[in-house]
Amino acid sequence: MKHFIYADNAATSKLDLEAFKAMESWFLDRYGNASQPYTFSREPKKALTESRSIIAECIGADPEEIYFTSGGTESDNWVIKSSAFSDAEHRAMITSSFEHHAVLNSCAFIERLGFPVAFVQPNEEGQILPEKLNGLITESTRLVSIMFANNEIGSIQPIKDLCDISHQHGALFHTDAVQAVGHIHVNVHDLGVDFLSASAHKFNGPKGIGFLYIRRGVDLPPLLDGGAQEKHHRAGTENIASIVGMAVALKQNCRSLIGIQEHVMSLENSLLTKLKETGLSFSRNGGKNTLPGLLSLSFPSKDGEAILHRMDLAGISISTGAACDSVNTKISHVLQAIRLDEGLARGTIRISLGKNNTEEDVDQIVTALVRIVS
Ligand code: PLP
Fold first, then answer.
1. Is 192 exposed, middle or buried (0-12, 13-18, 19+ CB in 10 A)?
2. Which residues are 348's β-sheet partners?
3. End-to-end alpha-carbon separation of the chain, Å?
4. Which among 215, 246, 175 is positioned nearest to 66, based on CA atoms?
5. Whose CA is nearest to atom 8 of ligand 1?
6. Cα angle for residues 128, 260, 66 (degrees, 5° grid)
7. H helix and E strand count, the chain
8. 150 Cβ below 6 A of ligand 1
9. What is the helix (H) or strand (E) element at residue 317, kind and residue range?
């Protein structure tokens, strides 16, 4: 029997049940403002401390290096905009051309204000090669921002090497790890990054909450001015329920990271094998080192958006790499950046499998794809 299949986990993911349960009492009973001095606020204050420690442990950070934000978009905006203004001598910034728009549009903002921004191009496999960064970076570069893993094609970047090059030139290094945290091993101290953005709803936490890791000793002026929350670095009454939910969700995923990866990889392999067996012509984007479960597939001479809508009618949610208006097909900046042939780019879809998907889901996805594409 047909059932609804969610295969767009890179867009957002289902809330972990334990995280949901852990949040409830913070909405209904323990709703005190963590900044108040009375007894009723002690528990929320303690929840903040505990959540910060849990999150820090999951990414190899110290608790005081974690700052709660409203999600990946805010974390990215904070690093890019505040870094630009914090050093008059070092005004330049480098990012890649296939970042999420939270990074690209923050860069466009500082560019409009006169800060130079250079863009490093990925290769056709979706990799930012360290030598390319080396060729662009100068002594006036303040910040380099390269995503940990690309959200459309899943390619994982050589973050440690890119970070080392940045440091050799006296620049700070940020990584937008929104697609990586809670899915693959991330250890900020091993990588040496100065800043790392993460978002709870991508790792089975609630929406509208995330965090920014700021390495101890690195100064980043606040983006949001106001109260004294987050050590005067991020104003606004703390969203305790969501922070607790985020910490529980991350802990759940990190505790079972290998098991989840194996499950998702086995689904991914099964989907690719079954799809190949049908004889359908398709290629996969993103090279060899990709996020588990994220499949960017291109069907030559097909229309990705039409596939998406017909999959939707079949009860299956997936994503695409190209969107049409009535006149043009707009190919995503990511597929353009990896210079994917236009005919393939138009026929590109993204299937992102998560821990809640099953082998039965894979069978239905393959059956529907074959029917729709052929
Ligand atoms: N960065 C990347 C790589 C993403 O995939 C996303 C969301 O799709 C974001 C940033 C934005 O995160 P949020 O939805 O938490 O604002």
1. middle
2. 298
3. 22
4. 215
5. 11
6. 60
7. 14, 15
8. no
9. strand 316-317
Select which of 107, 163, 254, 324 is catalytic. Answer: 324
Distance 119 CA to ligand 1 centre (A): 19
C-alpha 121/C-alpha 194 separation (Å) is: 22
DSSP structural state of residue 338: T
Q: Does domain 17-255 have CATH number 3.40.640.10?
A: yes
CATH superfamily, domain 5-14+257-373, is: Aspartate Aminotransferase, domain 1 (3.90.1150.10)
The yes-or-no answer on residue 324 being catalytic is yes
- Please give the structure tokens belonging to residue 202: 């991508």
Q: How many CB atoms lie within 10 A of CB 57?
A: 15
Cα–Cα distances (Å) from 39 to 29, 31, 237, in that order, read 14, 12, 17
Token duo for residue 135: 């060729």
Locate 244 and state its tokens: 């607790």
Rounded to the nearest 5°, which phi and psi values hold at 237? Answer: -60, 130
The Cα 324–Cα 146 span in angstroms is 28
- Please write the tens of the pLDDT for every residue from 63-97: 999 999 999 999 999 999 999 988 777 789 999 99
**In the chain, what are the domain boundaries?**
5-14+257-373, 17-255
Q: What is the DSSP letter of 90?
A: -
pLDDT tens digit string along 3-38? Answer: 899 999 999 999 999 999 999 999 999 999 999 999
